[in-house]
Amino acid sequence: MPLIPEEPQIHESVPGPRATPAAGRTAPTPRPVPGPAPRPAPGRGPHAAGVRPGKPGPPAPPRGPVTAPPAQRTGPRPQEAAPTGAQLQLIPAPADGALDAADEAVDLLLDAGRAPSDILLLTTGDPHPWAAHELSFGEASYWAQYDAADDVFYADAGATRPAGRPVVVVAVNGGTDETTARALPAALARAGALLIVCGDPQRINAVLGTSA
Fold this sequence. Notes:
By secondary structure, this protein is α/β, with parallel strands linked by helices. It has helices at 98-111, 129-135, 139-148, 177-190, 201-207, and strands at 87-92, 119-123, 153-156, 165-171, 191-199. The chain has a five-stranded parallel beta sheet, sandwiched between helices.
């Protein structure tokens, strides 16, 4: 399953670059993402009130006659198994910048109209700060938020419990090559419509046994 960087863009009508990445970023290839998204403040949801405004639903279809119904931003329910055939995209980023790139991809998806509950973000290395914070209250509380299916959910790529969501974002931010080799095919199986992988393209392809 080679992951070849394409023209760096996120489909779903995501807007182009809106800001320059913050200083200190070492990503070798420009990405269509704004500056680093602020880390979610402690709370009961990373995109709850006071952290990020609630997102409106999908934009209304254009006025006037149309030849076909507008595309629906729908997918399997978060707890349902994701079908195969998801679109695959790679956002080049070094390991220490992969989590920032993944956060920025999530922000662009939300800005484009994706519901927070459509998105699952997985990490191969250190956990996302929101996941680490919520796990400090215990796994029961943490997984209850996943079951509620009303917000973006952050989990370890090796976790077996998160099922499919329409969009899965993977931050290859560390971990062993074996971990990454297992995580990517599993993430693709979970993605109903779109899989976005943020990481070093050479390493990703190497651990999958393909050429860059």
